[in-house]
Amino acid sequence: MKDYADSMSPEQARLFHDDVLNIVSQIPRGQVTTYGIIAAWAGWPSHSRMVGRVLRYSPEAATLPCHRVVNKEGRTAPGWSLQRTLLEAEGVMFKANGHVDMQQYLWEPEEMK
DNA sequence: TGCTTGACAGAAG
DNA sequence: CCTTCTGCCAAGC
Fold it and tell me: Which candidate, A110, A103, A105, places its Cα nearest to that of A41?
């Protein structure tokens, strides 16, 4: 009996990777979504951190609008100030505290259910 | 083989 | 509002 009930097999890791990229590619211009939402739709709700890992290390992610992915509080990725610039260029307004106004710009992939 | 490190989330101080 | 801690899980060293 394996003690890691929720870990991914190499096969599942590959599918998760593909799903993450697929979802990110569908985020509409001028909107944002979160790591947790992407992970949940990919089938692994507890792997939000893995989503960030894919976006940071996968060469494929560089061709996608990965700047439209922020954390649930609307904060941008640490050490990547350009992300805010890219979002503002699409019309996304930031609140005074430096966070994205999630109530206004959050997008969830309901259409692909 | 075992401890540390995150493009996270959520709660606590 | 900001920092820190815990839970999470794969990757690095």
Answer: A110
Task: Please report, rounded to whole angstroms, the spatial distance between the CA atom of protein residue A44 and the C1' atom of nucleotide B9.
Answer: 14
Shortest CA to C1' contact from A70: nucleotide:
B7
Quote the pTM value.
0.91
Q: What is the pLDDT along chain A (113 residues), one digit of tens a residue?
A: 444 456 888 899 999 999 999 999 999 999 999 999 999 999 999 999 999 999 999 999 999 999 999 999 999 998 888 999 999 999 999 998 889 999 999 999 876 54
Q: Could you tell me the distance in Å between the CA of residue A95 and the C1' of nucleotide B11?
A: 23
**A34 phi/psi in degrees, rounded to 5:** -115, 165
Q: Which of residues 60-89 of A touch strand C (CB under 7 A)?
A: none
Both tokens assigned to A109: 């992939």
Protein CA at A23 to nucleotide C1' at C5, angstroms: 31
The residue among A110, A105, A93, A113 whose CA lies nearest residue A29 is: A105
